Amino acid sequence: MILLLVFYQVHLKDNILETHANLAQMVASSLNQHIEDLNWRLAFTQNVSSYLQQKKNPQPLLQEALAANPDFVMLAVLSSKGKELYRAGEKQVLNQLPPLDLSNKEELAELAEKKQLFISSFDVVSGRPISEFIYPLPNGDFLYGVMSFFSFLTRLQEQRIGNTGHIYIADQAGQIYTTPYQYSPDFDAAVLSRAFSAKNPLIKNLKTSRETYVGAYAPTPILGAYVAVLQLKSEAYRSIYYTNIILALFLLTIMTLSYFGALTFAERLGEPIGALSNAAREVSAGHLDQKIDEDIGWGEFKQLIAAFNKMTADLQDYQVLQLQAQASQLKEHVFRAVAHDLRAPLLGLQGYLYILQSGKASEEEKKQYLELMSQAARNLSALLEDVLEVSRVEAGMLAPQKGPVDMAKLVQEVVDTLAPTAAEKKIDLNAVVPAWQVPADEKLLRRVLTNLVSNAIKFTEKGYVRLRAKQDEKCYFITVEDSGIGMSEQEIKGLFQKYHQIHADKPGYGLGLFISRQIVESHGGTLSVTSRPGEGSVFTITLPKEEK
Q1: What is the longest distance spanned by two Cα atoms in the chain?
Q2: Is-contact 307 314, C-beta < 8 A?
Q3: Using CA atoms, how far apart are residues 343 and 514, in angstroms rounded to an integer?
């Protein structure tokens, strides 16, 4: 009985701390998402770049961006050399900040080359939590900004865990950021920093001059800061202490009944903790609709469950607002991309129709123009088909009709179709695929293979394109390997995103690989790539075998 009591004490304490750890991870994920959303809010930089190219003052655009993003403290345009050209922001900040000169920063050249956003680590300036960011503009200049996290962190720090539990944001040195209205315990920064460096995210004994705290922490990868959920040890384990007294009384009265009573009570005690732990784990995975029935809690657990439900509701509201903003910007991006790509073939068709209607073209020219019009129409049809396919994918309407597919026959048909294109570039296109019966949708799988092989030919100037296949006990593997230009790790990261094109000078709309991956995943498989610049690429389709 005593051993059982000890076991449940340790187990319940770990469950309580794991709940704190899941809450910390959930907040860290939310803060990380807040930073990643910055890319969506920088859509206005296209207009800023356009103003700069036209020699116009972009300050009105900067002011509009500041008004639309209250957490932007200031924005400035830097020249390609790193010197300030224009600025906008709060007067107090602008008066304190001298003209920017980052010409000695070697990182600027790397940022301009990679076209990527740079975000500095979390810092506190004049009592305000901020982070700086630099974003390369299309015309070669840079956008510099200072973003405040005051309102975001204030909302988080208003959350309570019980009566004494709080959520804190700390830097790597263990220094805690708190608002003037929040109680700040006298944590030793060095002790807290050592806790952050430990492999175990649970904080089981954090002493101050007056109290002892327990809790957990989670890192925020982008800002280099930590989220710490800390609560007085006496409050966090209060229910366990009560349990000890009750179980001790049971032991003093009758050993046998105490044994069964302890089990029943421990299960009752573990129900709210288990519910909190499971719900927090779901929320940490992004499922913010988790709610816990407050009736299963009692005492401090009831307050903890209420605080948890309030926090998930706040985070869900925030996520809805972010998704609405992202959806609006995504629609605008899609409409612009489609309109741009539709314009070229339509203008070509209009031009050739005008020439033919004029009656001034010879028979040979008419034949040539009709062929060009046919090609423009095919390009237009291909674009619309891709856009419709993307819409079907996003609507969840992509449902493969599986059947036995002769892999060797299908691959040979794809090779025969694309052989003239490969021969024109003097590329060796060959396939060695056994005559397996693969469970798949033949039409959809043909589209994936055709897209992968045509891409390989497009980005290969000399050498070969090979199709190979192998299998193990669980899966079929089909690879498309080429000796083309290859890709860097950074280029691979966005390869399967919609409207993403690594080489804008090559024909295409940036939809093929996105659709291909969705088709393969709808079969329960995966589409992956390995590549190095100048050494070619290998795309691998993995399809699961049907269970017998």
Answers
A1: 112
A2: no
A3: 23
